[in-house]
Amino acid sequence: MNEIRTPKTGKAKRVLEKRAPKLVETGKKTLILHGTKTSATVSSFLMELYRLKKGGAIKYSRRNENIRPFEAGGETSLEFFSQKTDCSIFVYGSHTKKRPDNLVLGRMYDHQVYDLIEVGIENFKSLLSFSYDKKIAPHEGSKPFICFTGEGFENVQELKQLKEVLTDLFRGEVVDNLNLTGVDRAYVCSAISPDKVFLTHCALKLKKSGTIVPRIELVEVGPSMDLVIRRNRLPNESLKKEAMRTSKDNPKKKVKNVVQDAVLGKQGKIYVPDQKIEEMQLVDKSKGLKRERKEAKLKQKEEAEETASKKNKVSA
């Protein structure tokens, strides 16, 4: 039976609180690993990926013989490294005769392998093979745009999964607002065929357009490559259900008796209690009655004056 160890120091408690599940998760850290054998292409790509994600990635340069993500029992080392580094997404590079220039991209949930997708690298171009003005070079840690073009990302299951994994890999921290001047890079993914995707990294160049919104030009700065899908493994249904579960303390709580209509907008229902009108004392402020009372007073005054004048005549 495993012993449950509780933190005894304040630092250990803070570390556990930082790793605990949150309603709004922070950016996912990436774990970069080498297989038993890697080619120059794979090693170059892993190094450049580490530079692009500097500050949000951890790279191990030692060869790992025990990691075989698609085989039973080959996930133990991955789960150990994930728990040790608190990384929720990993990139594993290897090279064999059967699968040359191979990459395995995967996501973790609760330090368990959530899903996997294996791709091969073709037509790789490194950062050094591109010439451009260094003034527009993207800054480290900047927020990127991610563009997916092609119907395959909506229709093909493997491309859908690759789209989700690449989004988690490159998007970084989740934010609500962005400063346009701070967005200086974009990742462009184009679906060439049902099993092939072109991926490139571009810098954004802002130019005058005559309006408030500037005109944006893409300058390819690398790396760029073709990703060929080889194998994939979808998440287990029970694990997927558990990962998609949200807390009941979600701040976006449904408001009672309020509905949102596309045409009429926000509408609400108000429930008024039963009003016992027959028991209420109504104040009489009608103008008609005031006029009648005023006319009655004038008539009484006129009659009093007439009677007084008649009495004066009789006495005379």
TrEMBL record:
Annotated Basic and acidic residues bias: 284-302
Localization per Swiss-Prot or TrEMBL: Nucleus, Nucleolus
InterPro entries: Brix, Rpf2
Keyword Nucleus: yes
Top-level lineage group: Eukaryota
Signal peptide location: none
Keyword Transmembrane helix listed: no
Start and end residues of each Brix domain: 28-238
Location of the region described as Disordered in the Swiss-Prot/TrEMBL record: 284-316
Keywords associated with the record: Nucleus
Entry's Gene Ontology molecular function annotations: rRNA binding
Protein's UniProt name: Ribosome production factor 2 homolog
